[in-house]
Amino acid sequence: MGEIKFQLPALERLAKIIGDAYTGTEITDLFRKADFDTVGHDGGTKWRFLYAAFERLQRTHGAEAILKILKNVCSPQERLNRGDVRKEINECLAFYGLSIGEDGELRRVEKAITPSDTDRELFLQRNYHRLVIEHARANFLQRDYFGAVSDCCKEFEKFVRKKSGLEMSGRKLMSKALDPKGGLGVSLPGVASMTRDDVQDGVMHMCMGIMASARNPTAHESKHSFPIDRDEALDILGVISHLCRQIDRMRPKAQG
Questions:
Q1: What is the domain range of residue 104?
Q2: Is residue 3 included in any domain, yes or no?
Q3: Number of Cα atoms under 13 Å in the Cβ half of residue 78
Q4: Per-residue model confidence as pLDDT tens digits over 174-188
Q5: How many angstroms separate the first and last alpha carbons of the chain?
Q6: What's the CA gap between 112 and 144, in Å, rounded?
Q7: In terms of domains, do 244 and 209 share one?
Q8: What does the pLDDT read at residue 256?
Q9: End-of-domain residue from the set 108, 135, 157
Q10: What is the pLDDT of residue 253?
Q11: Which residues in the chain belong to E strands, given as ranges?
C-alpha cells in the first residue's frame, strides 16, 4: 500500500468509531487477532485507550498495524450487529485513498479532499469563539459532528466551572453560577437593571438548555442512538460560541 501515516485527528476519529462499537473485552480481542497480544484494554475510557494504542503502534510498527486492525473490524463476521462501522471507517480512510470492501479487504480508491472544503468553509465562516475552534474544529473537519458537539459541551462546562469557581456540573452548575441573584453578573453599563436581569436570566436558561439538550445526550448516548448531522452541529456550536462570549464579559458579583 506504500508509505502511509495517519494524522492524529484521524487516529482519534478511528478510536472513537471502534470505541463506540466494542466493549473493553472485545477491544482486547481485536488486538489479539491482529497479533498484538500485549495490548489489552486497561478499563479506562475506550476511545482514549484506543487512541493511545494506535499512536504507539503506528510509531513502532507503522500504519500497516492500524490497517490490520481495521481490516479485522470490517470483516463480514465482525460487522454483525455493529451498525455502519465499516462506512464510518471508510469515510476516514478515504482521505488516504483507501477503502475496505464488503469482503474486508483493503483497496486503493480515489483520494478524498482533506478535509472537506465545504466543511472547512462552513466552520470557519461562523467566526466561532476560541473555545469552539480549539475543541470542535478537528472533529468537525473529520466529519465527526457528534464528537465535535460532545467535546465542546464538556469544555464549555469546564469553562463556566472555572469562571464561577463552583465545583458543580450540568444544569445545577449553570443555575447556580448564572442566577441573577448571585454568582456571575453580566456587564451592561447604561442599561436598566430590569434589562440586565432579563439578559442574565436568558443566558442562564440557555446554558441550562445546552446542558440538557446537547451535553447530557452526547455524554450518555452513542452517535448511533443520538445522531447529529452537520447543520445541527453548526447550530449547536453557534449557541455555545454565543454563550462563551456572554460569559467572557461576566464578573463575579460582589457578596453581601
A1: 8-108
A2: no
A3: 21
A4: 999 888 777 777 666
A5: 69
A6: 16
A7: yes
A8: 43
A9: 108
A10: 67
A11: 98-100, 106-108, 184-185, 251-252
